[in-house]
TrEMBL record:
The chain crosses the membrane at residues 48-68, 88-106, 126-144, 150-171, 327-346. Signal peptide: none annotated. It is found in: Membrane. Belongs to the bacterial sugar transferase family. Keywords: Membrane, Transferase, Transmembrane, Transmembrane helix. This is Undecaprenyl-phosphate galactose phosphotransferase WbaP/exopolysaccharide biosynthesis polyprenyl glycosylphosphotransferase.
Length: 512
């Protein structure tokens, strides 16, 4: 990455229409007053954080109102200056407590733009703030010996947590809608070799919710190899990275792959970016590894990136197993009227059994029979050979969008995913999980290469690829998402996938 930090020796026209060039001073680490530093070049987070601040305050006020209205004797123990309990209580409930929430949320980084908009860190910080506020209230109540209504306090704090989480979830959905229209995004300049930069480009464009829009690629090597070929964004070479970012109005510089390993160059680039308001992001060659598995431990000024093994055993895995079986059993009991209605409709519309049990490959390669409500005619397997030329799947699964073997009631069950409910039986038996990679047909034999890694966990009723596109995804994308789940599984991720499954089923996208 040596040339990336040098002044340009040869000029290159950026676009045909650009007529002005922004020139920013290169600081090279010269000390400046902290009060004179330029604010972040990315501005999308300012109105968004202000909105969250307002919503959080309103959530705390609403929760206090709920506690006052629905909790008996909430003001016991407070004495105002005139002997009345109400003035002090209402001041605490509607002003002091909400403001405390805002201060604690701010202290826990819940308004930090690095954690807003994507991932679970934002909600983790909200939960930490909840624990902190509970601790503060408990200590103050003990110190001043106030006879608080425990039910009122519990109601106010718990409802606040629920409302803050809900409003932030809705605000995030609104943010995603804006980013789909090209608003509230960060413009990114990718720095590195073309293959490495292209890999990062593909990753960030797949995750449109992240709001990262590549606007250019600065090539640290192999510039001649891309001449004359079509690139997704303009490519540049022999330029100063900081001035190039200014010309492209890029507020983020992402150093990709091996370019981040150049001794001293990354540090000098960070010096040059001081005072410009632009973010520096390092995208190492380590891909598809989630944050909880990655830890940076500095040794004598050298930041070492530690990658932990996936958590496929231990207490968390035991909790997942217990929750799977318990929730599946409760689900079978509660949904029994619906399951009975589905069975009757299948029996009434076509001859044959209610259930279809197909051999599938499960955890550690063990074969089991996967339960599903029958959605096809009984001669479906015999007719498959004649339809092989119409297969729309590029992987191990056989998929046709308008499959003639599907019954009328079967089309409805597939669109609504109700046919999958029978797999709760497999979950109760321990053969499947609520969340995991989809079980593959056993007749495909031994799985080769990376696909075998899917067998490290129990297959699931729903999974990451189902909530990311289902049958609309290519086989390679489905495998990539399943492997990502295997390597980065967590209880939080499972819960997130279950919530996303509800939205996907309601939209009926990719279900056929």
């Amino acid at each position: 990455m040596t040339t990336s930090l040098q002044r340009p020796t040869t000029g290159r026209r950026l676009t045909e229409t650009r007529v002005s060039v922004n020139v920013e001073p290169v600081t090279n680490g010269v000390p400046r007053s902290a009060w004179m530093r330029k604010s972040s070049a990315a501005t999308w987070h300012r109105p968004y954080a202000t909105l969250l601040l307002t919503l959080d305050f309103l959530a705390a006020v609403t929760a206090s109102a709920v506690a006052v209205v629905f909790t008996p004797y909430p003001t016991v123990g407070f004495q105002g200056w005139n002997g009345s309990t109400e003035p002090v209580f209402y001041a605490i409930a509607y002003w002091a407590l909400p403001l405390t929430w805002l201060l604690v949320l701010w202290g826990n980084g819940a308004y930090d733009r690095r954690y807003l908009g994507i991932g679970t860190d934002e909600f983790k910080r909200v939960v930490r703030a909840f624990v902190t506020v509970v601790s503060i209230v408990s200590v103050l109540a003990l110190m001043i010996k106030t006879d608080l209504s425990r039910l009122a306090v519990f109601t106010a704090l718990t409802v606040t947590l629920i409302l803050i989480a809900l409003t932030r979830f809705l605000a995030r959905r609104a943010l995603y809608m804006m980013r789909a229209k090209g608003k509230a995004v960060q413009r990114v300049l990718l720095v590195g070799s073309y293959p490495e930069a292209l890999e990062v480009h593909r990753a960030v464009t797949r995750a449109s919710q992240a709001g990262l829009i590549p606007v250019g690629i600065y090539l640290t090597e192999g510039a001649a190899s891309v001449r004359g070929i079509s690139t997704p964004v303009p490519t540049f070479a022999n330029r100063d990275v900081v001035s190039l970012a200014a010309d492209l109005d890029a507020d983020t510089i992402a150093v990709c792959g091996s370019a981040s390993a150049e001794p001293g160059e990354l540090r000098r680039l960070a010096w040059q970016l001081e005072g410009t308001g632009r973010d520096l992001v390092v995208a190492p060659q380590l891909t598809d590894i989630a944050g909880p598995r990655v830890h940076i431990r500095p040794v004598e000024g050298l930041p070492l990136l530690y990658v932990e093994e996936p958590t496929l055993a231990g207490v968390s895995w035991l909790v997942k197993t217990v929750l799977d079986r318990t929730c599946a059993l409760i689900g079978l009991i509660l949904l029994s009227p619906l399951l009975l209605a589905i069975g009757i409709s299948i029996k009434a519309t076509s001859p044959g059994p209610v259930f279809f049990r197909q051999p599938r490959v499960g955890m550690e390669g063990k074969t089991f029979r996967c339960w599903k409500f029958r959605t096809m005619y009984i001669d479906a397997e015999e007719r498959q050979a004649a339809l092989m030329m119409q297969n729309e799947s590029d992987g191990l699964l056989f998929k046709i969008k308008d499959d003639p073997r599907v019954t009328s009631i079967g089309r409805f069950l597939r669109r609504t995913s109700l046919d999958e409910l029978a797999q709760l039986i497999n979950v109760v038996k321990g053969e499947m999980s609520l969340v995991g990679p989809r079980p593959l047909p056993a007749e495909n034999g031994d799985f080769l290469g990376d696909v075998r890694r899917r067998l490290l966990v129990r297959p699931g009723i729903t999974g990451l690829w189902q909530v990311s596109g289902r049958s609309d995804l290519s086989w390679d994308d489905a495998v990539r998402l399943d492997l990502y789940y295997v390597d980065n599984w967590s209880l939080t991720a499972d819960l997130q996938i279950l919530f996303r499954t509800v939205a996907v089923v309601l939209r009926r996208k990719g279900a056929y």
